[in-house]
Design brief:
The chain is of the alpha/beta class. It has three domains: 131 residues, Trna Endonuclease, Chain: A, domain 1 (3-Layer(aba) Sandwich); 73 residues, no CATH class; 82 residues, no CATH class. Helices cover 50% and strands 13% of the residues. Helix 6 runs antiparallel to helix 7 and helix 9 packs across helix 10.
């Protein structure tokens, strides 16, 4: 399961979520901006950085690492990246804090003795999701984070509960972001199932997801001109081709023809699958698997 990308999507949707995990969050938590940054010479990529608002002078920068696999040099890397970035940007910030998020204590680096000073301070915060409590008692966005840690036997019931809670507590359109995030988590957790099968398990329909809304909107435009249902299918083809072109450049005529010949349900599956493609080779493998 691609938990790292899930967590960064969560933070992009709701940056102040990080501060719901801390005992003493900053008073201006809602004003923070989530970003990823690069530090050169040596080159470091820091995926989770929470930047204070620039309008309030030098503030506290927060570094975040969501770690779901054991890494015996995690703290060496996190502290090296964080301190170097803080050093390079000292004039912008008054202080720094670091947050590491684990599914459980078993995932944490074994040898933490060299870092005891920082780890035992109020500057570094370790969060163990399985110790946050009952998913039904947690703030909604925090509960969504905990959903990523549940076993497959527990996850469907918990996800259905969170969907129901979302519909009751969160007005539309804000609820759509949570619905899509829960659905995405479950798609990653049950990778052997199609998105439609996951939606059936959760008791929701494709109509509630972002992909359907994009397809439907384009289908309306096509349908106004054509006046028939084929407009939705053509809009889906256009959407998929546009997404692929944006990521990998101009597509060959052969690939365009192959995509245009797919039935609507398969096109919808492709529109989700392509988000995980890293090259056109992935697309060709996917299309070959469909033909077989």
């Amino acid at each position: 399961m691609r938990r790292d990308s899930i967590f960064y999507k969560l933070f992009q949707q709701y940056p102040s979520l990080l501060f719901e995990l801390l005992t003493n969050p900053p008073t201006n938590a809602d004003a923070y901006r989530f970003d990823s940054v690069a530090v050169k010479e040596p080159k470091f990529e820091i995926d989770g950085v929470f930047l204070p608002p620039e309008t309030e002078g030098a503030g506290v920068v927060y570094f975040c690492e969501a770690q779901f696999q054991k890494d015996e040099l995690l703290y060496e890397r996190v502290f090296a990246e964080s301190l170097l970035y803080f050093y390079r940007n000292r004039a912008r910030f008054s202080d720094w804090q670091a947050v590491t998020i684990y599914p459980s204590r078993n995932t944490e680096q074994s040898d933490i003795y060299p870092h005891r000073g920082l780890l035992n301070s109020n500057q570094v915060h370790r969060v163990y999701l399985d110790e946050l409590g009952d998913i039904r008692q947690l703030p909604l966005w925090v509960a969504v984070m905990v959903l990523t840690t549940l076993e497959e036997s527990q996850a469907p019931e918990a996800a259905r509960y969170l969907l129901t809670r979302t519909s009751e507590e969160v007005p539309s359109p804000s609820s759509r972001a949570i619905i899509e995030m829960i659905t995405t988590i479950m798609v990653y957790k049950f990778e052997q199932l199609s998105r439609r099968e996951v939606e059936s398990m959760l008791g929701i329909t494709l109509k509630e997801t972002r992909v359907y809304r994009e397809i439907k909107e384009e289908g309306r435009e096509e349908g106004r001109e054509e006046g028939r249902e084929e407009g939705v299918e053509q809009a889906t083809v256009n959407l998929v081709i546009r997404q692929l072109t944006k990521r990998f450049g101009e597509l060959s005529g052969e690939i365009r023809a192959a995509i245009s010949g797919l039935p609507l349900p398969v096109l919808e599956d492709l529109s989700e699958a392509l988000l995980d493609f890293t090259s056109l080779a992935d697309l060709q493998v996917w299309l070959a698997a469909f033909r077989d």
